[in-house]
# Entry
Amino acid sequence: MNIALDRDKPIPLARQIQAHLERLIRERLLAPGMKLPATRELAHSLGVNRGTVAEAYEELVAAGWARAHVGQGTFVTESPGAPGASEPRRTSGGLPSVDGDLAAPAPLAPAPLDWPALLSRSAQIIAAEDERARTLVSAATSNPAVISFAGGMPDSGLFPTDAFRRVLNQVIRDEGASLLQYYPAGGYPPLRRYLSTYLLRFGLEARPEEILIVNGSQQGFDLIARTLIDQGDTVAIEQPTYPRALQVFRSFGAQLAPVPWDAVGPRVEVFERLLERHAPKLFYCQPSAHNPTGLTLLPETGRRLLEVAVRHHVPIVEDGFDGSLYYGARPAVPLKAADVHGVVIYIGTFSKILFPGLRLGWVVGAPPILERLQAAKQLADLHTSALIQAAVHRFCERRLLDRHAARVAREYARRRALLLTALKRRMPAEVTWTEPQGGFSLLLTLPPGLDATELLPAAIERGVAFTPGAPFFMDGAGAGTLRLSFSSVAAGRIDEGVRRLGETIKAARPRPRGRGRLEPATVPVV
Amino acid sequence: MNIALDRDKPIPLARQIQAHLERLIRERLLAPGMKLPATRELAHSLGVNRGTVAEAYEELVAAGWARAHVGQGTFVTESPGAPGASEPRRTSGGLPSVDGDLAAPAPLAPAPLDWPALLSRSAQIIAAEDERARTLVSAATSNPAVISFAGGMPDSGLFPTDAFRRVLNQVIRDEGASLLQYYPAGGYPPLRRYLSTYLLRFGLEARPEEILIVNGSQQGFDLIARTLIDQGDTVAIEQPTYPRALQVFRSFGAQLAPVPWDAVGPRVEVFERLLERHAPKLFYCQPSAHNPTGLTLLPETGRRLLEVAVRHHVPIVEDGFDGSLYYGARPAVPLKAADVHGVVIYIGTFSKILFPGLRLGWVVGAPPILERLQAAKQLADLHTSALIQAAVHRFCERRLLDRHAARVAREYARRRALLLTALKRRMPAEVTWTEPQGGFSLLLTLPPGLDATELLPAAIERGVAFTPGAPFFMDGAGAGTLRLSFSSVAAGRIDEGVRRLGETIKAARPRPRGRGRLEPATVPVV
# Structure
């Protein structure tokens, strides 16, 4: 600790030290509960007697800023707001207050930097997006009385936390020293080998060296964007789609050209017209377990998309979510499985099937592009934690992931079925929705004239939350849609949540127009 | 698993399945040791009888491609190179070989994508850098007979692996479910609070909300570069410096303008002239524990650098390494500690003092820029593993880090002293070197006319390795320098390593010119 002491001032050194520490505690720079430096240490580093520091500490204790624990040292008092702690008295002892002299925070000099003016184009784009996002009502609510269909994450109540703790223990014991050292950027070799075999289940053949380990699929988007996108490039992208994918490509200065989904996948003829006119650098899509709709493209659509991409020499970035979470007879076949030409870059993740917080995913690509993605990864953060990779590998190798995946897939299938049943039963006639074949959510379309963002406050008031659909679309489309995630809503609360949502929708349209015919559950495209 | 079966072919289905699996094993798409799918599962997914799959598996076992373990299933044979495994026989049983028909890998269609032509400017820059790096002899050698001063990493023999395992266990037990879920981008709040207090030791005052958790300092560089640098911007940068920092700024299209170090820090008058002429977007430096020299700038130099930066409205990016690793009377005071104007962005890391493999670091900055860095972090990979953050926090809070840091600082100080003693004793007269005040390494300057990259093969032949200095410099400077890291060389091998290096240098100059005067240990600037 570096305290500027003024030995020419008439104020005793102990008082100067005390006042400085008091300011640090008040401004929470010294956090509640923190141990103060040992008196001997601090005295040494300030070049004063140990008694001087001890005196300062005693004053801090007397004033309630700190507590002394015999044999342990002196600790900053717990937050005044915390239970059992009292607001420190501001002055104490017989010494005059020097608060005004010394303990007041130094006035911050006027900032000579105009940070917003210094931002890169990329940072300016992100700042503008953030600004836009702020105008959206946040669907996240911490009120437990609200049934929230807003969170698109796995249910942490289903996490195999303890089993994971055990494998983590084992791998640290077995190979801790090498896992905690710097590690090659490509990833933990046994995990790459495991994934090579794992992906065969979905018909996807990739050698270990064609697989790059990344920090979740988000880093996959980022590395692909920085490796392929320059300012002003066009990116073709499915609509609706995952908002953070939109954001990443935008932040690299891409112009986005939407390819709308219908019930069988992104519309191939729109895709082809787009390739003819705009020569995009890549096409991004989620062919299976699509977020937000939960739809899966038909194999025939996949074949046609691939064929068009090959003919126009355009890479496809396939966001694979997780193939194990499907609700039909068998998992969807990834585009990458039919990619004999190597035009598909496939992104996979452990975030949905295991733990989002691990930040662990992978990218599969042809060697010439995978090598470049790996170089970008190395510059971005050297490598992904080898410890986490090894633990997940051990977890998979012991077939714990398979067991876990089967268990959660059953549970999510149950919740999905409950949600669909409740919607059929409780939604007004003009409401339509997609039937998810994978993933965690579906997209619901409100009756004409209703706006999901405007509806949300009323919904929360009735005790239900959702994600407005607009951010999943470009150019202001999707205002009449909303996403319902069923993955983290307890089965017993789903019907009640849908009931509340139905009432919210009905109340928003007190005089419904004549019932229209129910359209097939396709995604509206504006 | 997705096997295309042809029911019209005269080849039995079992044989088709076997041939397909055989190919996958041969191409290592099914990795050695992997369990094959249960016969029931595979039969179901292929729509064949279970007996058909069982027959295929038996053939694989008979041919040596797989092994059956009673009650456990069928596993791919361990690698033919592995001990105890024999080369699988290529044909078996009474069945005709269909290798040519079915099991040969499908010929890869010609790639319709010209990946190099699709690369972004950034990726092209990285590719060119990689190409340049390949022309350097790699100093890494796995031969244990070679004493390697090349690795700039902490000694994994000193890792507190077991203590870390225990805290990791505790935090998963205590709060596993929330730590393994998605987490806010800023970081684990208790860790940010701890760092706020920890940094006070070095005189650096930062509120928790002015601290962003990142994946090691490398991600800090990356986020700062993408937030401040556009193609064509100038970046002022100390010379010599950490090569990966150079690379990151280059990859964002920056022009680099070097500010040479002398014995007291980057030369302020060069810095000021540069600011006047080029208006760089930022200045990058490592004021303490400088890599490669180990030097620390004088406080007076720091004050002058800051003053110039403020006057010219240029942010300073301070790479803080770790303040606990110092070899003088007290730690260096970071530039950030005197930064009343908020122009310094400080980067810290746990990689040097704890474990590099955790990928855990932090960035301190004024709120307007920290907010933008956090937004960039969120797009880059959402957040850093909260589990790792919580474990490190627990480790610090229990004062295990302090204890560990004291222990390793002593050991590194010992190795540094041994290295300096050995150099004094064993180096030819024209060799000079820096005296590290922090960090893991020093920079040595060879006698005139010697090139470190050219010297390396001869050094390795004599059983010693180092890192040539050129990559730490821009524009081809530094060829006559090399970096010696003492952090991961066992104390008992240092003198012998230096002896071998001395002999290598002497042998490279069989007829030394007249001894020049020993210059003070400053860094040569070309």
Q: What stands out?
A: Chain B has a mean pLDDT of 87. Chain B has three domains: 13-103, 126-157+410-508, 195-402. Residues 120 and 126 of chain B are 10 Å apart (CA to CA). The first helix of chain B runs from residue 13 to 26.
